Amino acid sequence: MCLVLLNFNCKEERIPLKEQWENEIRDAENAFSNLAQEKGIADAFLTYADDNAVLMRNNKLIIGKEAIQSDFANKEEILKSLNLKWAPDFVDVSSSGDMGYTYGEYEMTKTDSLGNSQIETGIFHTVWKRQEDGSWKFVFD
């Protein structure tokens, strides 16, 4: 009887796996946004991109981390004038804990050479995949 009670108590204290995985994805999304603000958009996207990640920009797909890196290299000057931040409003994860997704609002501020700022807001959607080391990387943004 004591063993059953001890086992029951241990299960009570544990966070359900689905909730734990959702928290991991939320944390990854927030760290991704924080890195974009601290080190720049290109660094953040390349840090959090799966090797096979896909970006959809201007109705065009940029497929694979190498292509994403090349695309960012071609836009280096533009990216210097941008500040991008976002936070997930919603997080869900598969029952197996290997894939998840987020969505929420983003804010992008563009500052021109005269110091004038223009703010654009919108909605983001990110698909996340658990990596072999347990970390999360995005596979679609």
Quick tags:
141 residues; alpha+beta; six-stranded mixed beta sheet; 5 helices; 6 strands; 40% strand; globular; disordered N terminus
Summarize the structure.
41% of the residues lie in helices and 40% in strands. It is of the alpha+beta class. It has a six-stranded mixed beta sheet with strand order 2-1-6-5-4-3.
Low-pLDDT regions: 1-9
Mean pLDDT: 92
**Biggest sheet architecture:** 6 strands, mixed
**Envelope shape:** globular
Could you please describe the fold and organization of this structure?
By secondary structure, this protein is α+β, with helices and mostly antiparallel strands. 41% of the residues lie in helices and 40% in strands. The chain has five helices and six strands. The protein has helices spanning 2-13, 17-39, 41-48, 65-74, 76-80; strands spanning 49-57, 60-63, 82-93, 99-111, 117-130, 136-140. Strands 2-1-6-5-4-3 form a six-stranded mixed sheet. A hairpin with a 5-residue loop joins strand 3 (82-93) and strand 4 (99-111). The radius of gyration is 19 Å and the shape is globular. 18% of the residues are buried. Mean pLDDT is 92; it is low at 1-9.
Itemize the secondary structure elements and their pairings.
Elements: H1 2-13, H2 17-39, H3 41-48, E1 49-57, E2 60-63, H4 65-74, H5 76-80, E3 82-93, E4 99-111, E5 117-130, E6 136-140
Parallel strand pairs: 1-6
Antiparallel strand pairs: 1-2, 3-4, 4-5, 5-6
Helix pairs in contact: 2-3
